[in-house]
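Onboarding guide, step 5: your first structure request.
Type a short instruction followed by the sequence, for example:

Predict the 3D structure of this protein.
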Amino acid sequence: MWMKSVFQFGFFLSISYGQETSDATTLDMDQFAWLTPLFGNISEQCEQDSILYRDQLISIIPKGRADPTPGIPPALQMFDANGRLPMEGFLSDSIDIGPLDLCQILNLDSCSLPNAIRYVTLKLPIGFTSNPGSYEECLSTTELETRYCTVKLKGPDIGIGGGLPTRPGGRNFIPNLENYSQLLQKIDLFRRSKNLSPQLPALNLLDPQNFNKTLELISEALDIDEEMENLQEQILLLFVSVYSAIGQPQIGMCFPKSCSAEDINENYKVLTANSFNPIEITLNGTTFQIPLTSNLTIETTAKICFTNENRSGVPDKMPLVNILFYAVFALIGVFTIAGTLYDLLQPHLSKDKKETSFFLKIVLCFSAYTNGKRLLSTTAAGSDHLGCLNGMRFISMTWVVLGHSFTSSLAARNIGTILPLFTGGAGMAFEAVLNALPSVDTFFLMSGILTAFILFKELDKCGYDGTKHTITFIMYYVHRYLRLTLPYVLIMGVVISVLPYTFYGPGWATVVRAGEDCKTNGWAHLLYIHTLLKSTADQNNNTCMIVTWYLVDDMVFHWFSPLIIYPMFFAYKKTKRHLYGLAWWSFATLCFTFCVFYIAYTTHQPPSTATNVPGLETNYTYHVSFYFAPWTRYQAYLVGILLGYILHHTRGKTVTIDEKVNILMWQVAFLGAFGVVYGLYNVRASQEMTLFAATMYNTFQRLAWNGALAWVIFSCAKGYGGMVNDFLSWSAFAPLARLTFCTYLIHMEIIKMFEASVLSSFPNDFSMWTQVWYFLGTLLISLTVAFVFAVVFESPSVRVEKLVVESLLSSIVSGKSKSTLNGQTLTLKAPLQA
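The system replies with structure tokens like these:
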């Protein structure tokens, strides 16, 4: 029967070379089809090569000879390269599911099973479900040309949906906080969907004696000796169903190169054909059919199959867009070399004080020497510079990298060890990792502050001059778009045309897929609408630079914010009172706060994506994720606009704050921020929270967090920050802060490459120590790569944009007006940038 074959397959793969067999002819030849395609409508060449592989394996099985085959035969090397399931540690990582009603499982209308054996607890292995085998050994096989594929097992539907969102290749599912929370929800939903009863003896499928004893008791109670095998199949089917839905088992396998993914799937379709058929059981002369809601599937895809000639899985023909990016990079390289040499040699070339031509000014913008010196400078950018933002920017970026590097280390085999982390098992301190989500809101806050602080200043300079106001309004949008997009598109070009060709590995399809998605959906990224369109919003379908959802929200906020800022500016300009402007800001904040409340309450949103609360399974179905939606995050930006307004009107003025008030406000800020980050610990540990409480957290967490940080910034800016201001304004943070934009754009791609090439090549276990190493390594490598990108991409684009804009403005406005506008074109910057 097919279920036996599945488990025999695992043990068959565990045969080691040198095990003595009395007679190789006693082997069941059909069992070799689990190793290589032999059945179904497969290609003739695949069938021939598979037979050759099978026959070589049979020929090297020892028959008591004293002279075993010398060396390592290629067939044995292919066999040895296969991943094995079950693998070591399989028995150590299990959870209890149930009690389950066996009568419900067997679909019996009337059940005579006694409760002692009717309700059982299923002891299910949850981890150790992915074994990549040896990618290198498979593709290094001589004589026999090979193909390495990741083969996945999918069981019948058990009423809790399919498995977790899967990658295009490599790891068994995308390891992020939300997906682990979904895993807990699936387990809990499965438990609650069955007939619960007090604790009863466990049906331990990992213990043959326990399993057979339970079957005997059921057989005696139902008098179905003849259908014992069918009964065993149905219970094992339940096991495979839950096992595959939660763990999604997969192994790396080595096949003959001539066997395509279609040949492999066709072979396994034949082997699992019986899983399409209902199981029949006869009780008291009456035959009952137990239909299967789905079939058992063992399959692979062409994207997760690799050959020695193409280990990375990139297209055989170089795409035109890659060639275009190579040309652009070559041109940038030429300009960088020329600009650097001219910059270094310029003082020695001529003593004459001639004005440099426009073209040479463009070339000098690419000077690696000047750009690097500016990036590494520890001096402040100007008199209005908010020094504390440097430390806040870098620390927040480090926090983002910590959260993302932590999720990458979750792609481990000991899932049972990881799950307790999501139920408070690591203690309250670990909330700073699990609930690192406010780190992104910090950037929205800083973006709102800088946008408002600078725009209010520029509007003051415009006075009542309509032309200046028009130019200021246009430059508000043009500068921001160019400032973000120029380095963004160049780094996207690296993701498309460079990263897929740098290395290879069992999971490298994720890197190649990201580049392909950037080619397909890059236009939506460059319009900053890719998370808003239904066709590109799903990150399982669009894996291009997934962290750039932040840029969409930030750009939308920037587009929308003049509707908040201009009324505040003109209200004060007309009345010289702050009341009307603050009233308008309060009305806008109230509207967006109510929007968050309404969506969170009506869709049953949990307090965070990494928190599983039974009974709070969301019914949110809109294609724009609640986590990514701009309308649910605008509160942070609004707080920034308010602080920017306050800082503008107190610019250059001394603000007196009573010492007691200052201490009180610092305490309130600390408690508010602490509550947002650590306030969910008891919820995580108890798995209990009402819908109203979760809605209140979702509604006010961003106001509390960003309000707390706004006080820190204001206090530091006005001289009441003390040692906090000394630390955040530390000059060493200045160069690090200038790297945050490029670090943010590239760090997830570096994590993805490490997962796809290293972590997917061998089974690895999660531990806190490995997490520390992943984080530190990711941060250091990301900063190093970001520095290179900032020198050759970001800094030149900023300088070229400034030069071109100044040239264009000079032909429109007078020299005096031009100088007034230059500050704006230089200083309207996103908080991720220097």
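Each response can be followed by summary notes, for example: The mean pLDDT is 81.
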